[in-house]
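Notes continue from the previous slide.

Worked example: a multi-chain complex. Inputs as given:
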Amino acid sequence: MRLDRRALVLAGLLSPIAAFAEQFAGKYNPLADPVGDGLWMVRGADEAIGFANGGAIANSAIIATDAGAVLFDPGVSREHGLALGALAQRLTGKAVGRVYVSHLHPDHAMGAAAFDPAIVHALPATRAELERDGEGFSDAMYRLLADWMKGTAVVLPQGDLSDGQAEFGGRKFRLLALKGHSGGDLALLDEATGTLIAGDLVFHDRAPSTPHASLPDWRKSLDVLAALPHRLLLPGHGPIDRDGSAIAQTRDWLDWLEATLRDSVAQGFDMSEAGELPIPPRFAALKAARYELQRSVSHFYPALEAELLPRL
Amino acid sequence: MRRLTIAALSSVASFVVAANAQAAPVDPLKSPMWEHHAARLFGSDKIVFDPRVAVRIPEIAENQRVFPVTVDARSVPDVRRIVLFADLNPIPVALDYRLAEAEPFVATRIKLDQRTPVRAAVQTADGTWHVGGAWIDAAGGGCSAPPVSRVKGDWADHLGEVRGAQWLEKAGETRLRMTFRHPMDTGLVENIPAYNIEHLSIRDDSGKSLGEMEIFGSVAEDPAFTVVVNARGAISFEARDSAGLRFPGKVGA
């Protein structure tokens, strides 16, 4: 113990940053990629939430309007939301005037803490799910992210969005009230640029996560998105989709996942064995595939056993 | 079996056992509780860390109430007993499986109350314990939060529902899966006393025992067990809980 502490002090004298790198959070430094006229994508890390990435794993979008910037998904923490807000100000010359929260998951929702709740909007189902799960998410994020979360309290969005046309600062949006990745999934089509901001209904080259998923609902929502004419697609995780492949990739993974887990129960495998099953080569480009498969086993397996194992 | 039960639950008993213990080998996982558990579980028996004892777990504890663990020690000859435990759980031992006509393989789900080593110790016929395991990070509350069915209030409606099936593992071997609806109350949640399945017995068609398992409150709610037995044909099993209720099942009849 004493040796460790002395070694730490010595290391601290030589290299203070390295010595304290695990104690204190760094600074969020979100970067924007221009996507179209007055629209930018901010890429999250294609990883699991962890201290090393500050939980900044979800994509966000920034849209310029006459009434202020629109921020679609404000990040994981108050500091993250503030950094995204400052980026929006630099890019658009205006402060954030409206925030959309696509769904309840903390990597997308908890950065709302950086904004006036009056300008933060979401689907009614998302507000209800955050009322139910927000404090639990908060506990989990503080445990994983510690100092990155400082000052972050659960801010409930206005649950006032519905399917249809919306307009803010002279810019027209089509809002889609969907579900399947969670109980409420908001997607937004920016009409000026034909950009579909899909939230976590669409993952791209990053395996989909399923903690609150209903696969039948998710597939129906993918049908809606695929039928909606758009030029570009911003997924909730992973790179921008320019060739229309991300919706099909997300569906392919969900179909494979469900078939694989059902087959695994039918073959008599237990959960940890199911989590070790081979992942087909066509998913080789998907980041975090093994991690998400094992999470999905946890989400779906007990219910599949209750459905498929004979009652004695 | 009784001695392990007492030792598992009583620190007084563990000191008595510890007094006779020889020094345990240095723990590759550097667990703060290794020496304590080694002394109380294995007494003066020989202990070796053995990579052939595979403890297969996911890379993330997605749900600390239901953490899957598969123990596969089939490359260790003459295994007679498997003890599955998590060093830093308030109820460390999850199950103690005595093999009669069974392969050294068991899969189940356990609760995790914090970051902890998850280990299997298998005892061979010469008395030596072979130990394998790994650390897993986990949020708290797996043992000290109420079961989902307690929160929903429907646990009694489904208590004792048994599901199961068998598969051919390989020639002469049967893979048997069994699930039970049971709250598996730990006794660590306010105003809910301990109430758990505590024994599982597996028999062939002639009534001969294939394996016997002592089960503790750190096994997950609605427990599931997978074993491989050296028998074919009909296999029957029966779980018994701490209130004396019995939950029988038969597969391959």
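Summary box: Residues 124-145 of chain A form the longest helix (22 residues). The first strand of chain A starts at residue 32 and ends at 36.
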